[in-house]
Automatic annotation (TrEMBL):
Secretion signal span: 1-22
Keywords of this entry: Signal
Domain Secretion system C-terminal sorting: from-to ranges: 466-531
The keyword Signal belongs to this UniProt entry's keyword annotation: yes
Membrane spanning residue stretches: none
The UniProt record lists the keyword Signal: yes
Lineage, uppermost ranks: Bacteria, Pseudomonadati, Bacteroidota, Chitinophagia, Chitinophagales
Protein name: T9SS type A sorting domain-containing protein
InterPro entries registered for this protein in UniProt: Secre_tail
Amino acid sequence: MKIIHFILALFTSTFFFGAVNAQVSITSQQTVGGNADDKLSCLLFTNDGGTLAAGFSSSGISGEKTENSRGSADYWVVKRSKTGLIQWDKTIGGSLSDQLITAIQTLDSGYLLAGVSQSGKTGDKTDTSRGGTDFWIIKLRKNGNIAWQKTFGGKEDDECRSVQQTADGGYILGGHSRSDISGDKSENSKGGSDFWLIKTDKNGNKIWDRTFGGNDYDGISSLQQTGDGGYILGGKSDSNISGEKSQNSKGGFDYWLVKVNNNGNIIWDKTIGGNAADNFKYLQITKDKGYILGGFSASNISGDKTENSRGANDYWVVKLDSLANIQWDKTIGGNADEQFYALQQTLDLGYILAGYSRSPISGEKSESGKGLDDYWLVKLDRNGNFNWDKTIGGSLNDDLTSVKEIKRNQFILGGFSGSGISFDKTESSRGLTDYWIVNILYTSPAASNTISQMPINIQVNNEMQIYPNPAKNQLFISSKTAAAFTLYSNMGKALQTNKSARQQVFNVNTYPNGIYYIKKNQTGATKTFIIQR
């Protein structure tokens, strides 16, 4: 019994952390561009271990660009080897503006490119414009040569935002449309803009299309085929109950989720939002058959939003179960502006979030800004608790649009940069903006580096009190001054951080029995406690 009491006394002493913060290092980077604007929309892994960087360009032959511009903007894809060597690049466009929004690798090891086109039958474009802007999809062979292409649209503006190859070898396309019945559109508009969903066969021939919307703006940003052969559609909406929308707007734009069957008929829809603008960007079906939704939000606590805004806009991530019930939501940001672009569930069942930030150190942002916009990467655990973040940038605008996990704790980032050599950027700009591809490695602080000393004089214990110890479901903290606190595992991994306050509660019911640390972020003082059930 004396030994047990001694151990408990030892672990309730105050420790000082040496290198507890996550170490995120750049292992390589590459700037790819021409003499004008080149903006990367997405980055994907290829079957040969390389990557495809896909976006749009207004550059002529210059820098890494080997073909001239066709119009004011063209689809531009760059194939890279596993080591980052450029194997080929392709410029594809008509005489006007053609912007590639998304791309996938297909089952035959080729690629499908999808985006928005203003061009008629000019340059590489073999179909006439339907009116305004149209969906434009292009099937490439493995070597980047065009196999076929399709234009879909009505007489107004139609923009393709997401694509997936389906289980039958065909494709599902999603975006938004302002068109009534005309061209390839078989249903009238429901409001200002609508979800527009198109199913094609393996050769890009349309099988059916569906229009969903309310009386205002509705647009798809992301979609996936579900295990039952249907589809989950995610986008933003400011429509009230009308058309296919079964719930009123919560305020400004909201996330709008629509589930359809394999024929495109609606099964259910769900509106998720707060009292201001919530801009949906991305969804993924999670390993537990639920959904993770990501975007950026200006809302405070209201509607479905459980945390206040940190600044102008913040990352807003919402986890749903398989029945679309909200399990948790997280607001992540600094005191200025953050805009979210993409996410991925990671091998440890957590989530990696990508976008850009203009904030200094504040809120969840642990590093100062480098320039104007910076790449901002955020890692969450499976319960949405904040693990770590990383700010990467040069002296100008750097916008992160894509992130992929290479293997555990290794990620590849893709976006576009206006920066020259400055701060984290080691290569000169080729023009106005360039593709910027960055590889990073996260190193978890080892336990041996976590605790640097156990001081004899423990007067810093007076800075805070923690109870109960051992804890079971909740840990309460009382501090003499308002401060932010971080909970760490016994290996020094940051598990969650609370906002600055004198009285705080950490929910610890999801963590296994063991030894944990609480750190007062402003002073570095820490206390150890035990979770025991």
